[in-house]
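Re: Re: ligand-bound prediction request (bumping)

Still looking for help on this. To restate: I need the protein modeled with zinc ion bound, output as structure tokens. Inputs repeated here so nobody has to scroll up.
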Amino acid sequence: MSKLKLLTAALLGCLAVSALANEGDRAFVGAIIIDGTGAAPLSNGVVVISDGRIRAIGAQDDVEIPAGADVIDVSGRTIIPGLINAHGHVGGTLGLEGGHYTRDNLQRQLSLYARYGITTVVSLGGDGAEGLALRNEQNNSDLTRSRLFVAGDVITGNSEQQIRDRVNAVADSGVDYIKVRVDDNLGNSQKMSQALFSALVDQAHSRRLPVAVHLFYQDDARFVLDQGADLIAHSIRDEDVDSDFVNQLAQSGVCYIPTLTREVSTFVYESEPDFFGDPFFLQEVDDDILATLREPARQQRVRNSASAQAYKAALQVAMRNVAALHEAGIPIAMGTDSGPPARFQGYFEHLELSMMVESGMSPAAVIQSATGVAAQCAGLTDLGTLEPGNWGDLVILEENPLAAIENTHSIESVWIAGNRVPTP
Ligand SMILES: [Zn+2]
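Reply:
Sorry for the wait, this slipped through. Here it is.
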């Protein structure tokens, strides 16, 4: 390298360092802070983010704000960690249609989740190369869309060899989880056999990947836990959980993702849902989608659908089970199964939070379930809580959600890696 080039490189290096020192530090000062660990909220707190990650957090007197930091006065507001959806699907839906999996659509949906304060989405199935690429690109301090983690294709197969081959192929693609369905769709399809499921778990674990299981029935939950499943990705909805099962789940340490709004989506369009009058919903939804969901003939079909009505009844069971499992100390991770048509990304996560409270959890427990607990359940080690070293993903609210969970709608701004998420 010539002397000139060396000098230029050295100068650029200095510029880069000073630019980071000045532009990379951001301090949010004066808010109530709920850090996602379950600790009591901090009043008059400070969060300092440097180069995308949390550098310090604490009471105003205890935290030193770096010289030259961009100081943002957030007094009177509440800061929560960016919310994590532990079960979503990203990239496939456009309007009310599936089959539109593209990089553009993924980015559009990750930006939508971000504007709603859902700063991380665990996509449990239907993920292709474009999703994996976006997952690989997100470890940088310029990020302004939601983080994505992926399961790839849901594993299916008719023989043990096919199952093991599919697990290997999906593992080779670089996924974060293996996803499988153990369900007969209310008796309308063939359930994966126990032998095949056992082979799947064995193969996934040999690839060091956790297995997330879609299920419906309590007996299937007993079986999959017995076989070493790592994540229950939906509510048990056929019957109330019994004490044997609660003990088994507690001993396994496995997390439970209720996806209550998944049930809602199956029947709620039988008439006009209340949320069609909610500005927080309407600000992001297309008029054509609303018009389609309001069509009387379409509503009639939902009213006449046996499965819609069965899932409506199943929701009541699911809500009782959330309460019972939470009471028993089971880690409950917020997840919605949003993403498929008419399961509205962003808005449904807030609806889920409300329904978890309606089921019997406190607002504090629900916030934790959507932050620190969701991160722990999904194996995300530097997300979910506002602690030094973690990514600076947070939501600033006008009102405190511990007073009423619907206050999560009062979003003032959303920040990912310390960058403000743009609003259109
Ligand atoms: Zn799903």
